[in-house]
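quick q for whoever's on today - can somebody do inverse folding on this one?? i tried earlier but teh output was garbage lol. tokens:
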């Protein structure tokens, strides 16, 4: 059993802290945000993530055993720990491609007074290659060491992805320090390793690049199929069948080949941009110049979606009710950061449409970001009187909508399927105009 501190209790940190406690470790979760700490202390997740609240509750339960999980705003509490995870965000810098490392630097700075000889600081945040080397120099005078252990969790699956990841990657320094860091991390991840999870030990730079490369590949895969969708639109072909067919080649694989409105969220868009910025600093910008195109293909899908929506309401949004199904950047999340759905909703609003956005979890977050749009939590009410329905985030309840039932509520039977999840034949048979991205 290890005693662990987790600095930063956002998406990554809160899940990591709860997951590590569930594996039997003593965990201190530290954040400067008092509201977040208060919520987590009461086993309330500050964001929607299936399974997290149960984990928080069981690790903090008053069942006679000492608490395994404590949330605090006082970094001094981290002094008890010997392994310190840095889990703060690295957003895109305003007006630039590069990542903003302010929070990572501040987290390391705040840890310095509590670090003891033999402690291990473990970076989990997604950072530009070279960051770990720089931070290790700052940490070393305390007698502590640094490891980089990138996180690959997907929102909506964060708990499982943390406890049973596909792989563990440790970026460690050379020599004995590296062996000690590896041993300390092996102790933290004992249960996961015993379950057969592969672990790869690398240098700092490789570990940092693994994360950036993985997200760049995923973004590329999505934009590849969306580029094929553009060709399908130009030629009358069907991208969903195309994806099924090429995906059957197991060298290609069907996962992450869902054509549609493209990727958003707090990771893929900013990570590919930060990668381009860092590659430029390293004089290797040509190597990832293709990511600029990946980004453009992705952003073009949003504009195309607006065009399709305008077509189905006969060329103008003025005086039209447009119901947008989905505000979150993907289903099973309340995260609206760079949400393609909200981007489309915002554009239609600017072009004079009366937009009503509905989402099972994300309307509160969406309203804070785009206060001008109309919001309706109840799906049926949101659909009532619509001239066009746009399915932009593929929540289960939207995938299962019944064309006849929805038809009774709307003013005009027109639907644009931004995620290619509905059966066109079924909707057309019920008298709907059905349009989709990359499908005839
Ligand atoms: C991603 C990575 O998957 C994860 O490993 C990393 O740690 C963080 O970034 P996440 O942002 O939670 O995770 O979402 P993900 O499931 O990867 O989806 C990203 C976006 O791509 C979503 O907007 C989703 O709708 C879109 N997407 C995904 C597609 O458009 N098509 C697909 O086939 C798959």
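ok took a stab at it. sequence:
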């Amino acid at each position: 059993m290890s005693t662990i501190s987790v600095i930063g209790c956002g998406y990554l940190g809160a899940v990591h802290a709860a997951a590590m406690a569930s594996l039997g470790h003593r965990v201190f979760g530290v954040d400067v945000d008092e509201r977040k700490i208060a919520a987590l202390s009461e086993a309330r997740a500050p964001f929607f993530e299936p399974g997290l609240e149960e984990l928080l509750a069981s690790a903090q339960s008053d069942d006679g055993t000492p608490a395994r999980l404590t949330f605090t705003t006082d970094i001094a509490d981290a002094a008890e720990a010997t392994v310190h995870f840095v889990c703060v965000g690295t957003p895109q810098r305003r007006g630039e491609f590069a990542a903003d490392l302010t929070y990572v630097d501040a987290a390391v700075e705040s840890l310095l007074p509590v670090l003891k000889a033999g402690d291990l600081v473990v970076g989990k945040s997604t950072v530009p290659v070279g960051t770990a080397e720089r931070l290790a120099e700052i940490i070393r005078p305390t007698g502590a060491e640094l490891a980089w252990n990138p996180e690959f969790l997907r929102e909506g699956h964060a708990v499982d992805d943390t406890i049973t990841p596909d792989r563990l990657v440790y970026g460690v320094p050379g020599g004995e320090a590296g062996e000690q860091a590896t041993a300390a991390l092996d102790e933290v991840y004992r249960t996961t390793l015993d379950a057969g999870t592969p672990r790869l030990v690398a240098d700092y730079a490789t570990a940092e690049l693994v994360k950036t490369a993985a997200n760049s590949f995923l973004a590329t895969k999505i934009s590849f199929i969306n580029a094929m969708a553009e060709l399908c639109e130009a030629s009358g072909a069907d991208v969903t069948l195309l994806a099924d067919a090429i995906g059957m080649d197991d060298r290609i694989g069907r996962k992450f080949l869902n054509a549609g409105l493209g990727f958003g969220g707090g990771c893929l868009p900013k990570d590919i941009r930060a990668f381009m910025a860092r590659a430029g600093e390293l004089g290797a910008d040509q190597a990832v110049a293709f990511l600029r195109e990946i980004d453009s293909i992705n952003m073009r899908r949003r504009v195309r979606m607006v065009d399709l929506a305008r077509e189905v309401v006969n060329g103008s949004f003025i005086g039209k009710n447009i119901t947008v199904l989905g505000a979150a950047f993907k289903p099973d999340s309340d995260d609206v950061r760079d949400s393609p759905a909200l981007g489309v909703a915002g554009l239609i609003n600017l072009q004079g449409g009366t937009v009503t956005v509905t989402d099972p979890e994300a309307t509160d977050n969406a309203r804070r970001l785009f206060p001008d749009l109309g919001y309706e939590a109840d799906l049926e009410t949101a659909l009532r009187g619509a001239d066009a329905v746009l399915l932009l985030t593929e929540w289960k309840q939207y995938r299962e909508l019944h064309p006849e039932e929805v038809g009774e509520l709307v003013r005009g039977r027109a639907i644009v399927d931004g995620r290619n999840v509905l059966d066109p034949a079924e909707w057309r048979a019920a008298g709907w105009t059905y349009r989709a991205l990359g499908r005839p």
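fwiw The pocket of uridine-5'-diphosphate-xylopyranose is lined by residues 151-155, 215, 218, 222, 256-258, 260, 262-265, 267-268, 329-330 (CB under 6 Å). also The longest strand covers residues 3-7. so keep that in mind when u check it
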